[in-house]
């Protein structure tokens, strides 16, 4: 596959810069209207968790899907930040000692290492709440129907029937709660829930803000699903291949914990083939949008080729 | 003060029964539309956390405030359940070993004892998400402006500038993060954030669903604030007085951890006086509503006299 074009790379890093600035503003020490006060230690730990890192892939998808439909500015930016806050909360809680027990994240100490475990739990809790606060705020969209659609979508993608449910399945897959027999369908369900649902919603949020009709929204959801699945297969391949140095975190972790991945089930060649098929599927879902969707087309290639 | 009237007690237990049934339905193993699947272990642990206990004071306040304004049925019931789910999430996380480290809650093992720590973290996370999912669902109100108003209110009351922020202040008050000098203003701020904000929102949610005009909404918010403050002073008094048997949990915990309470700051007699003043203040806030608000008047007396 081709490397990303300079235009794409510029757009991605431009979006990351805007998202960073917006997250910084959302995580300031100053209380928003309706809040009582923001404790300094909590805010510092939340900034540690959410600022200064990451490709900001999820907000990028929200921003680009909205732009495809003619929506730009604060709305898609804020919705993208909400998804990113949700994502950051999940990382903070996943890193906890009783979960994946990770000391490093993006080469820096995880929140429970830099602060303490209680603070890390509260940081995750408050990042989740803030995601919903941002979506429900009239600054995100003047139409309350759009705002509650966003809230409902994020909640369904991230809660018991989405990301959190997927994390529980992931812990079960380690054999913590009895013998874990993971077939291909189980691995796919786990991945769709744990990482796919939020990636799909990142795209759908752009469709909601762009007032997509139901056919366009459905196409974008299908694009998001294919991208999410491709992301996960690529991650499984990466986990097997990459060196610890290149990733800044421990690798081969799934193997170490005895968890089945798609590479185990399909073989390395099968996994690579599936990756290519998913890229094609994602591209096919964008057909109706013409050249305007080229950035989203590149995004799915970027996702399967990312090195970090 | 007088004991609760039979009419009040009936209403309270009637509401608790309806809330219990509604929570049971919300926490079934069957995935809602837009959710992928609900893992059985997660659902069982969530039911352990949220079902079979508690006075359901918060939903009762939502239901009664809405009823005062002529709103009844699914809307107030669902909004009340959302507040209760939020409350239950906070209890599950507060009980964790790195937080308050409690083994018992309402005389039953806490979630991390009955299951494990990772499951308890995920249970809290998913209960929080479900609270927002319930509020944003059209089944709660057909008007999306009402739904996003509810989401925004709950988020502000429960996040970094409300309940979670208050929990961080509470941990700081134990001296975990350096010497803790708690003056009266600090203790009041902590209590307003940790428990007051959600109690206030419980009432405000009823006002929102009942389409209160801004004056009526403000009166109900003031009632909620007075009730929340009274709840906390009563809790401080109870914590000092009650026996472990009567409460089914460890008591004198604040003293044990060296945390200042309003009883320390005002003395037992001063705390009792403040309680009475807050009851009067709450009653005064309801003046405009006449006899229709008698249940809410009794609720604040109930709150200061509760034995469990």
From TrEMBL, chains A, B:
Cofactor: Mg(2+)
Keywords: Isoprene biosynthesis, Magnesium, Metal-binding, Transferase
Single GO BP term: terpenoid biosynthetic process
Gene Ontology MF terms: metal ion binding; prenyltransferase activity
Gene Ontology CC terms: cytoplasm
Domain of life: Bacteria
Pfam families linked to this entry: polyprenyl_synt
Keyword Metal-binding: yes
Family that this chain belongs to: Belongs to the FPP/GGPP synthase family.
Protein known as: Probable farnesyl diphosphate synthase
Species in which this protein is naturally found: Microvirga lupini
């Amino acid at each position: 596959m081709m490397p990303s074009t300079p235009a794409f790379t510029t757009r991605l890093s431009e979006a990351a810069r805007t998202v960073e600035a917006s997250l910084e503003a959302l995580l300031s020490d100053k209380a928003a209207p309706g809040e009582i006060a923001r404790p300094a230690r909590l805010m510092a730990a939340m900034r540690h968790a959410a600022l200064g890192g990451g490709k900001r892939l999820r907000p990028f998808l929200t921003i680009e899907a909205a732009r495809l439909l003619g929506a730009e500015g604060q709305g898609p930016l804020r919705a993208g930040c909400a998804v990113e806050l949700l994502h950051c909360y999940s990382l903070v809680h996943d890193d906890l000692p009783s979960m994946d027990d990770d000391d490093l994240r993006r080469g820096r100490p995880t929140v429970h290492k830099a602060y303490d475990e209680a603070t890390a739990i509260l940081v995750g809790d408050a990042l989740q709440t803030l995601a919903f606060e941002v979506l429900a705020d009239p600054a995100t969209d003047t139409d309350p129907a759009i705002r509650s659609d966003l809230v409902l979508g994020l909640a369904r993608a991230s809660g018991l029937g989405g990301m959190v449910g997927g994390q529980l399945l992931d812990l079960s897959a380690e054999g913590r709660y009895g013998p874990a027999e993971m077939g291909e369908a189980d691995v796919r369900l786990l991945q769709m829930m744990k990482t796919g649902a939020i990636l799909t919603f990142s795209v759908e949020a752009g469709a909601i803000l762009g007032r997509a009709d139901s056919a366009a929204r459905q196409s974008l959801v299908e694009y998001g699903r294919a991208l999410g699945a491709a992301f996960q297969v690529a991650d499984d391949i990466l986990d097997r291949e990459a060196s610890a140095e290149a990733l800044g975190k421990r690798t081969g972790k799934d193997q170490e914990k005895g968890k089945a991945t798609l590479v185990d089930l399909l073989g390395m060649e099968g996994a690579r083939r599936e990756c290519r098929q998913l890229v094609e599927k994602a591209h096919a879902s964008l057909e109706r949008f013409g050249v305007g969707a080229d950035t989203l087309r590149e995004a799915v290639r970027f996702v399967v080729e990312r090195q970090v």
